[in-house]
Design brief:
Order of helices and strands: HHHEHEHEEEEHEEHEEEE
Number of domains: 1
CATH architecture: 3-Layer(aba) Sandwich
CATH class: Alpha Beta
Number of helices: 7
CATH topology: Rossmann fold
Helix content: 25-40%
Radius of gyration: 21 Å
Largest sheet: 6 strands, parallel
Structural class: alpha/beta
Strand order of the largest sheet: 1-12-7-4-2-3
Shape: globular
Low-confidence stretches: 39-44
Length: about 230
């Protein structure tokens, strides 16, 4: 009987905590609602009504991506992309990383660009095994699509071996073509279809890894990269 009483007290304490946090978030919910574009009748604008051309699609994606604490760099040519990779690596080495151990996907583009970086790499591996990938500081891969509506990356493992490289190292750098940025998740999945089927292994990435416990305390990088960089090329 005593055990049941203690369980009841603990359960009520958890519920009280949840109710308290939900109540305190109402002002934030109202603020978020006020920021959503609406028609005079009150309906939320569709994303297609806010995007009129390809350049604005890229800008919309960049804005939403940076809104979830990722960094986005738009380049005009591959030499600028190589310089951006070099600058990111040098900045990380000076501020956070004692070494540069880089894991890359099996993308021919990624391997070529990394080979052109002007930086001393301590260790470089292409698609390291599950046992080895935890030793690396940076993972570099391509992304197969970008979703402007949420600033989300879509990674299709049937087209590139990048799942571990993109999810395990503390820093993930993704290379994305501007033409692969679409407005919505539905459009991204349609673009990924082959023979009317979508790959069984698709990873959606929206900013650095985040998690929150029962007390709604946000933690970054617990279940994945602490930092995300997206480099958009033409």
């Amino acid at each position: 009987m005593q055990t049941r009483t203690n369980d009841s007290v603990a359960r009520e304490a958890i519920f009280d905590s949840i109710r308290s946090n939900l109540a305190s978030s109402r002002s934030l919910d109202a603020r978020e609602d006020s920021l959503k574009p609406r028609h005079e009748a009150g309906a939320i604008f569709s994303i297609r009504e806010t995007i009129t051309n390809a350049s604005s699609l890229v800008e919309y994606f960049k804005t939403n991506l940076e809104g979830v604490d990722a960094r986005c760099i738009v380049v005009e040519k591959d030499t600028e992309l190589v310089q951006a990779l070099t600058d990111i690596a040098n900045e990380l080495r000076e501020t956070k990383l004692k070494s540069l151990r880089i894991a890359v996907s099996d993308s021919a583009l990624v391997k070529r660009l990394v080979g052109m970086m002007h930086v001393n790499i301590d260790e470089l591996s292409v698609t390291p095994s599950a046992a080895d990938v935890f030793r690396f500081d940076i993972g570099i891969s391509e992304a197969q699509a970008g979703i402007a509506e949420t600033g989300t990356l879509l990674l299709d493992s049937s087209r590139e071996r990048h799942r571990l490289v993109s999810l395990v190292p503390p820093v993930h750098i993704a290379i994305l073509e501007a033409s692969q940025i679409v407005a919505t998740l539905g459009e991204a999945l349609s673009m990924m279809q082959r023979d009317k089927q979508v790959s069984p292994i698709v990873t959606l990435v929206t900013g650095p890894s985040r998690t929150a416990d029962i007390e709604l305390t946000l933690a970054i990088g617990v279940h994945g990269p602490q930092e995300l960089y997206v480099l958009i090329r033409p």
